[in-house]
């Protein structure tokens, strides 16, 4: 929990100055969610109108009065909603990418200034590769997380609210079933995210150590060749590389398992609703 609070303060410090852009993204996300939730209604209306047309066309008594106007109107609304949704998502992605790029650029400058104020013993106890990893892989991960997670969090939250609102309008029982199963999904997500965070942090630490080892070997390459220590150098690299491979594998497993689990729970939730209905 303390790590979550620290991360929240950290991101707030760098993102608060872009509150106007974040407000635009939030509004576009709400609009996009409404369009995405409302679009299936027009799809159902289109199928209904098409069915009515086919039924009227099939009978001689109503054949002349059969009209596809209602079907075309519903289809135009459906296409318009999906196009507007795509435009809103595109604009949101562009704004988020600009905010993430500017924020990580500010972080990089702040990190460099911080390094100028550090004591000498910090550089004695940390390898050059570990320090370099703060500027490369760590900040790249922060940029990717901000570029993807910020929009995903806002979109998922508003989509959940929109779906619950639509279900209460369509079927109250289905809505209550969804709300009842939500805590289970939250618990599963918490467990998976906690384990993913642990292994991803280990992965970054191991990558920093490996980068430090590589930097040291390149710096002392002449000494290694002169003393015939090539095999020892390779053995040390293989050890670091194996450790990175193990932690990366576990981190990717825990990070990648969340979406399939949520999809599976969504399918179970759908099955429960159908059994009730």
Give the uncertain stretches in residue-range form.
273-277
The helix content, as a percent range, equals: over 70%
Strand percentage, roughly? under 5%
Rg for CA atoms: 27 Å
Largest sheet: none
State the fourth-level CATH superfamily of the largest domain: ABC transporter type 1, transmembrane domain
CATH architecture of the largest domain: Up-down Bundle
Broad shape = elongated
Number of domains: 2
| Distance linking N and C termini | 40 Å
**CATH fold category name of the largest domain:** ABC transporter transmembrane region fold
Describe this protein with a few key phrases.
about 280 residues; mainly alpha; ABC transporter transmembrane region fold; 2 domains
Produce the secondary structure layout.
Elements: H1 2-15, H2 19-58, H3 69-116, H4 120-125, H5 128-170, H6 172-219, H7 221-226, H8 230-256, H9 258-276
Short description:
The chain is mainly alpha-helical and 277 residues long.
Outline the structure in words:
This protein is an all-alpha fold and 277 residues long. The protein has two domains: 1-152, ABC transporter transmembrane region fold (Up-down Bundle), CATH 1.20.1560; 171-277. The protein is built from nine helices and no strands. It has helices at 2-15, 19-58, 69-116, 120-125, 128-170, 172-219, 221-226, 230-256, 258-276. Helix 2 packs across helix 5 and helix 5 runs antiparallel to helix 6.
């Amino acid at each position: 929990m303390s790590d979550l609070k620290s991360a929240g303060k950290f991101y707030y410090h760098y993102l608060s100055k872009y509150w106007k852009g974040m407000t635009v993204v939030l509004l576009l996300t709400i609009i996009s969610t409404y369009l995405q939730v409302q679009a299936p209604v027009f799809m159902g209306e289109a199928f209904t109108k098409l069915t009515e047309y086919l039924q009227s066309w099939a009978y001689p008594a109503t054949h002349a009065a059969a009209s596809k106007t209602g079907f075309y109107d519903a289809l135009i609304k459906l296409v318009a909603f999906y196009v507007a949704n795509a435009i809103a998502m595109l604009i949101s992605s562009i704004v988020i990418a600009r905010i993430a790029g500017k924020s990580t650029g500010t972080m990089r400058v702040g990190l460099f200034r911080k390094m100028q104020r550090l004591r000498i013993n910090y550089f004695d106890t940390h390898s050059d590769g570990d320090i370099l990893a703060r500027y490369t892989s760590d900040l790249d991960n922060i940029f990717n997380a901000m570029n993807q997670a910020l929009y995903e969090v806002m979109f998922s939250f508003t989509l959940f609210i929109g779906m619950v609102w639509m279900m209460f309008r369509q079927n109250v029982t289905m809505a209550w079933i969804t709300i009842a199963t939500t805590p289970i999904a939250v618990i599963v997500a918490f467990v998976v995210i906690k384990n993913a965070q642990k292994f991803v942090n280990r992965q970054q630490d191991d990558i920093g150590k490996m980068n430090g080892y590589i930097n040291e070997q390149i710096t002392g390459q002449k000494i290694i060749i002169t003393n015939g220590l090539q095999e020892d150098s390779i053995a040390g690299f293989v050890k670091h590389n194996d450790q990175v491979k193990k932690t990366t594998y576990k981190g990717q497993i825990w990070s990648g398992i969340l979406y399939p689990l949520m999809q599976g729970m969504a399918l179970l939730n759908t099955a429960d609703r159908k059994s009730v209905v």
